[in-house]
């Protein structure tokens, strides 16, 4: 069996050499036939120079370098389109996804599983990141039609049938965690201890997590639109009830001087509902707008992968 190892890279010059050494050691010890696909996602450091130098020394390395930063989703897609193996393993370049788990992945694959997913615990994780991440999973599992498990990420082995199923989905706005679950197939989970980044700096922060949560919620259902409908219906009912109550008071008690608080609170409440609903609708319209453009997911500036220019 030929394995395709897919690694998105963004400003990881401090980790590339250690990553290459670790993977080479694991693959050699286990006598695997493999290719190492490195996707440079518009790095501003010396990542691409290091990748090119390694590719001249190691025939296993195939690389793709984007014309700019298109994001990890595009990088993973480029890796899957470049993969020639019977199965692919996606892992990060910061070594927080231990290559030592690869033999367990392969063993589970031979047991008949099409998806072998690593699930990390959160021991030692920074509370600033740990708490928002846990809230993210609680929120998104209430909002979307797929099931996402806390600790399960992109670090996984997927068989060729899963790769082809994923590549058949040509949507522009991609949310891989949801896609992996949506395509289905047999799955096995392998737990592992959380590994701290030893070099470099993560580009993932609270705002990135918030944007990622919004993408996930809007990519797999229309529940936010349904919430707007129910919220609007409830607001309309309350307003009609208020109008009816006020009308009855006018009939039996006469007209009182209008209350400043009532007017202001009503305007602010209704205005807030309208803006919130317009924001949700706008997000969906924006996604329709991007889908209708049919722009490529990425543009390749340089590569040693034949036939891959943009997609």
TrEMBL record:
The alphabetical list of record keywords is: Cell membrane, Glycosyltransferase, Membrane, Transferase, Transmembrane, Transmembrane helix
- Which InterPro entries would you find in this protein's record? Glyco_trans_2-like, Glycosyltransferase_2, Nucleotide-diphossugar_trans
| Gene Ontology CC annotations of this record | plasma membrane
Q: Which domain of life is it from?
A: Bacteria
Q: Identify the Gene3D superfamilies for this entry.
A: Spore Coat Polysaccharide Biosynthesis Protein SpsA, Chain A
Keyword Cell wall biogenesis/degradation present in the record's keywords: the answer is no
Ranges that cross the membrane: 227-252, 258-285
Q: Where is the Glycosyltransferase 2-like domain?
A: 4-166
Q: How does it sit in the membrane?
A: Multi-pass membrane protein
Tell me where it resides.
Cell membrane
Q: Name one Pfam family in it.
A: Glycos_transf_2
Question: Which Gene Ontology MF annotations are present?
Answer: glycosyltransferase activity
Where is it predominantly found? membrane
The question of whether Endoplasmic reticulum is a record keyword is answered with: no
Which PANTHER family did the record assign?
Answer: GLYCOSYLTRANSFERASE CSBB-RELATED, UNDECAPRENYL-PHOSPHATE 4-DEOXY-4-FORMAMIDO-L-ARABINOSE TRANSFERASE-RELATED
Q: Which family does it belong to?
A: Belongs to the glycosyltransferase 2 family. GtrB subfamily.
Name of the protein in question: Glycosyltransferase
**The species this protein was found in:** Macrococcus carouselicus
């Amino acid at each position: 069996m030929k394995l395709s190892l897919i690694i998105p890279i963004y400003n990881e010059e401090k980790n590339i050499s250690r990553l290459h050494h670790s993977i080479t050691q694991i693959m050699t010890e286990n006598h695997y036939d493999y290719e190492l696909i490195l996707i440079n996602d518009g790095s501003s450091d010396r990542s691409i120079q290091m990748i090119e130098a390694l590719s001249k020394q190691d025939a296993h390395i195939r690389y793709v370098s984007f014309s700019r930063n298109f994001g990890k989703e595009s990088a993973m897609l480029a890796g899957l389109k470049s993969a020639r193996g019977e199965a692919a393993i996606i892992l990060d370049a910061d070594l927080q996804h231990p290559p030592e788990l690869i033999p367990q992945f392969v063993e589970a694959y031979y047991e008949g599983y099409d998806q072998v997913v690593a699930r990390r615990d959160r021991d030692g994780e920074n509370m600033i990141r740990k708490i928002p991440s846990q809230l993210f999973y609680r929120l998104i599992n209430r909002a979307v039609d797929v099931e996402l498990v806390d600790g399960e990420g992109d670090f996984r082995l997927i068989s060729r049938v899963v790769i082809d199923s994923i590549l058949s989905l040509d949507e522009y706005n991609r949310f891989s965690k949801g896609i992996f679950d949506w395509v289905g197939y047999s799955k096995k989970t392998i737990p592992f201890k959380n590994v701290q980044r030893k070099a470099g700096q993560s580009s993932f922060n609270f705002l990135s997590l918030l944007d990622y949560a919004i993408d996930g919620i809007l990519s797999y259902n229309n529940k936010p639109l349904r919430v707007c409908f129910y919220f609007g219906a409830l607001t309309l009912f309350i307003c009609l009830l208020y109008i009816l109550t006020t009308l009855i008071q006018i009939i039996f008690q006469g007209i009182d001087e209008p209350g400043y608080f009532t007017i202001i609170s009503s305007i602010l409440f209704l205005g807030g509902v309208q803006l919130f609903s317009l924001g949700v609708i706008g997000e969906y319209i924006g996604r329709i707008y991007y889908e209708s453009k049919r722009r490529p997911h990425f543009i390749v500036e340089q590569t040693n992968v034949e036939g891959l220019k943009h997609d």
